[in-house]
Amino acid sequence: MLSRLLPALISLCASHGGLASNPEVPKSNNDTFVTALYYTEWSFYNKHYPVDIPLSHITNIYYAFAKIDSKSEGTYWGDEKVALEEIIPLVHEDSNSSFGVRYDMLCSKDHAKTSSEAEPMVNSTGLIGQLLQMKQLKKGLKVSLAIGGENTNHVFEGATSSQRKTERFCQNLVDTMRKHGFDGIDIDWEFPDLRSSSNLNKLIKALKETLSVAEKENGMLPNTYLLSLALPLDVSSLKNYEFETLRNYVTYFNLMGYDSTGPWSDRADYHSNLYSPETYSASSVNNTVQYLLDKIDKKQLILGMPSYGRSFKGMGVGLPFKGCANIADIQQEQNQCIVNYHNLPPQDYIEVHNFTAGSSYAYNTKGLGIVFYDNPQAARQKANYVKELGLAGGFWWDSYGDDFRAKNRSLLYNFVDELGGLYMLKMSDPTDDFYPDEMDGATASSYATQCFYTDIRVFLVIVLSWVFILVFIS
Ligand SMILES: *[C@@H]1O[C@H](CO)[C@@H](O)[C@H](O)[C@H]1NC(C)=O
Ligand SMILES: *[C@@H]1O[C@H](CO)[C@@H](O)[C@H](O)[C@H]1NC(C)=O
Ligand SMILES: *[C@@H]1O[C@H](CO)[C@@H](O)[C@H](O)[C@H]1NC(C)=O
Ligand SMILES: *[C@@H]1O[C@H](CO)[C@@H](O)[C@H](O)[C@H]1NC(C)=O
Ligand SMILES: *[C@@H]1O[C@H](CO)[C@@H](O)[C@H](O)[C@H]1NC(C)=O
Ligand SMILES: *[C@@H]1O[C@H](CO)[C@@H](O)[C@H](O)[C@H]1NC(C)=O
């Protein structure tokens, strides 16, 4: 009798995740949303690592970027050492750990003592190794491999210039994805023109077929691997996409709802405005979203938002400018006049959110410049927009720009809060034993306490079971 009871008992003890999860958590995926971040390989050099991303608040990560070798139709890493080899600590001194994930990892270390499946967390091998460790902690987290990026029309065109090349490229790409344990592929073809648009159709169709074969080989359900496609904000560029074909294969369309203005523009103006202000620019996120909703399902559309501003040396909204603003103590990306959100607003600048425009700016009181970006109010306005229109969710370019330490300032935290909190996020794996309420205000001690009580509960179950067995045997 004992020998039959024991395995059951052991599995009961081992699966203590079930005990820890809150049974009242609504698990319906109906009205839930995706929140995604692009993590860029080069943010390693800013000491921003995947582990700095608050795992509790996101459902998807895009790793940017794999590169295309158009001669062999293969893929390679922009910085292979950082992607695959560099030893990256899970806890590092350059970051304040006042938020989710790091404590989650520490907690999981404790769990490893009682849970048979958890492995102790050690330093990561490469950024991709660290992303996979994060997937161990939140099984529902989806990490896609993004390929392409800025000005990649020609290289994509080359890799898809014949059916044979397209198939080889898809096979190489899917092999890379599987080899490194990614959950999908994000195509950042920027941007197809009239000539290359049929190549894009063929690529997406062939990629979907290759992914389906991989799913069968892995014994997965169809459509388990994600296939997403980045889209430009500019409606005239969107005319080159054949959505009636693409919509049949693409899981998510990632609308890059930013960069409508920059150093190339005639005037200083919003670059990520939700609505068209009465300035010269007629471009708006709303216009493009409305255009797309005629062509794709609303649950296929993820609204992209910037975690950076674009600066102009000029006097104000809709006025001429000359180069980037002079902003003391802040490095702006060369010639791009890009300022990371965590540095905004700059000193001596006044922040203004314009509800009519659905975006924000900060201007220098002495007329030295103006920066356009989304502030927390803009993030909240966009969360409501996503909710009202029933879109799939929101994403940001990129994770380094936001400020996850100051929760009331973080774009991601404000967005999720306005959606209605962590329960509004899509939960891809119901066995994820996350504790949203505790995680939300997680401090080191509150999270450690949570771990402690979980372990106590497991301990009690074990003791009571043994008492039960002993009584039963005697
Ligand atoms: C989700 O929404 C659809 C349409 O509104 C409805 O038919 C379906 O029952 C809902 N499913 C759940 C699990 O709530
Ligand atoms: C992790 O990396 C840190 C810093 O590089 C090092 O001090 C520590 O010994 C490493 N820990 C393990 C378990 O390898
Ligand atoms: C961490 O937080 C403390 C206190 O809030 C602050 O003094 C310190 O500068 C922060 N460290 C970093 C690296 O941000
Ligand atoms: C906000 O935008 C609207 C529309 O462009 C404009 O009329 C209004 O003056 C702006 N307000 C501020 C404070 O910039
Ligand atoms: C958003 O676009 C739709 C369709 O073009 C339009 O009817 C609506 O007024 C726009 N919303 C705002 C606030 O401009
Ligand atoms: C944001 O939070 C910090 C620390 O909790 C607080 O000092 C600050 O006043 C808050 N800012 C706003 C605008 O609420």
Automatic annotation (TrEMBL):
PROSITE patterns to which the protein is assigned, alphabetical: GH18_1 (PS01095), GH18_2 (PS51910)
Cite the Pfam families for this sequence.
Glyco_hydro_18
List the catalysed reactions.
Random endo-hydrolysis of N-acetyl-beta-D-glucosaminide (1->4)-beta-linkages in chitin and chitodextrins
Give the GO terms filed under biological process for this record: chitin catabolic process; polysaccharide catabolic process
Q: What are the TM regions of this chain, as residue ranges?
A: 456-473
Which residues, if any, are the signal sequence? 1-20
Task: Give UniProt keywords alphabetically.
Answer: Carbohydrate metabolism, Chitin degradation, Glycosidase, Hydrolase, Membrane, Polysaccharide degradation, Signal, Transmembrane, Transmembrane helix
SUPFAM superfamilies per the record?
Answer: (Trans)glycosidases
EC number, UniProt record: 3.2.1.14
Provide a GO CC annotation, any one: extracellular region
State if Signal is listed as a keyword: yes
One MF term from GO for this chain? chitin binding
Keyword Membrane belongs to the record: yes
List each copy of the GH18 domain by range: 33-422
Q: What class of enzyme is it?
A: hydrolase
**What family is it from?**
Belongs to the glycosyl hydrolase 18 family.
Question: Which protein, by its recorded name, is this?
Answer: chitinase
